[in-house]
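Re: folding output
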Amino acid sequence: MWPTRSQLYTCLEQADSSPIARWLDYSLTSLIILNVIAVVLASEAAIYQRFAQAFNYFELFSVLVFTIEYVLRVWLSPQSPQKKYQSALWGRLRYLITPMAVIDLLAILPFYLGTMFGVTDLRILRSLRLLRVFKLTRHSQSIALFIKVLQQEAENLISAILVFCVLILLAAASMHFVEGEQQPEEFGSVLRALWWSTVTLATIGYGDVVPLTPLGKLLASFIIITGVAIAALPTAILASGFMNELIHRRNIFRMEVIQALEQDHLKFADLRHLEHLRLKIGISHADARLIFEEVKQTAWLQTHLNCPHCHQALMIRHPVGQIHLSASEPLAEP
């Protein structure tokens, strides 16, 4: 029996939905990694000449698989739970311009362009084929997390980069003023001094250009110290963004665990839902286990009932697995 479109969509988009979906996800991920390795190896002329036929067959096979995947994703896009993609025509057109659809297209486009227009420059084709590494974004939670943090911290990163660029320009202008006459080839203009100021503020310091005058050395020392502080800003912003996003995801998982433990016992459907959520938001097994144990120790349940003898209102407040009874009012003597 052929699978339905809904089943195919679930298999492609939800890697943990079934063993077949997991196998497909692992296979596509492995094929992408092998493609990147093949492009790197083929850039060495001796290796490519020796295994040219194997590289060509592997390229044909990869393009065939990626083309089928691309066509299937476009065809199945109306099965998406998002309403904007559910239209047969406009939904597919909207899907075609999504970032992941564009990446899927770029993964196969170099082959067809090279075949149609007879591009013979292998360096161009190989460079374009390396775009296939971005397909890992769909299959890797780590890359997806990194992209999301970049999106969330975009404003802060842009601000830090702008500050960095301004300091580069000021450093170049200062060194041109101080060292311009002494070293006209390296600091004869602000434009020429930009190279030195960039590598110095970035704390790289190749040493190909150095100041010679005492004032230039003093100024360079100040620029180097400033560069250490400024160059660390993007790293600190990204690190903070990663921590905030991970804390947010753990809190989401913690709330789901609390809701699941509010029942008398965990059902298989609850465990399956928690595992699906863990995979979806990228929580590790260790984090999930730690959150589960923390919730079990700290979560308290409240149950309200009436005493079967005196019909007095009672409240049961207890952690999971324990029950302590306390009467709202002192129990009346029978």
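--- second protein (sequence, then structure) ---
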Amino acid sequence: MATQEPFGTPPSRALSSSGIPVETLVTSFSALLLVVGGGLFSSKDLSSFSISRSSSSLTSISLLLIFYTKTYRVTWFIKAVESSETVYWGYKDLKSDRKQRIILNRVVEATYDYRFLLSRGYSYTQALDVVTRRYMLNSYEKLLLFRCVHSITYSYETLKKIVYVCPEVVKHNLLVIDFYNILLTVVALIGRRDVFLCDDCLVRDLRGSKLRAGERVFLTESYNILANTLQQLQFFKEIIVIGDKNVSHSLEDIQALTRVLSDRLREVRVSYILTSKPDATTIDFAKMENSVVASTDSVIIEKSHRILPLTTLVLNNMKIKPLLDFPQLLGLSCPECP
């Protein structure tokens, strides 16, 4: 029995009813679009087409090509997501800061299935195993789903916790910052590493929990970016930064950030806590009625009353587009000022 392809027969392998390779038909179809569209469409290879921003204001598009054969029908769904330069769709690979690539169309389809399975009560492990086998995801794509895609219930509960980032709306006294969780994502943004806007409207990266070699040069800039972002808000009376004392240079790093925040936010009381259990300590503060937590850790988020999307604010201030925008993909709206 023939093995079924994970997301349909690739166009390069399919034959039309007349025996002509679908590759030829697709290329001809692309050429027709080039003529009709006056150069709007371009085709660089069999598996991808593109619309340049200069020729179209579209941010997303769906194209369905259906090929019939005598024995079977091949349906090719092509989904579009805006990347940093061009709107790509098809079997186009997204740029990644690792050797493993993100193949857009299989990640999109896996996202829908994964979210559905989670919402039907499957555990994260069970659902991830199913879609990994079904769509032949590599380890980087698998990690992306694990970090960025959640059950519908979790996503909506988190969205309700996100505070409006407007001084006239937010009146909370205490901001608790999950230090390395936030810092490493800012470092990733500065280093132009992969970052993603996840389905709970929080920006995350797929890196590990430690600074990489050569990244300490980004720390001073990271502190200043965080201070600039918080300075724009100015509705907290106190900020507590919580860090892991088991991380190398943690005392030096956390003191450096608190100094910058104290210098820039003179009316705010800034302090830090170094502990061997930073998550538990953050959760203790998160349970306080007057607190808002800046973290993208899902466990901390579930235990918190309110969340400040600090990494998302930083991304917007830096005018960087995430590699993938899951809320846009799933039709979700992120909280904004009324």
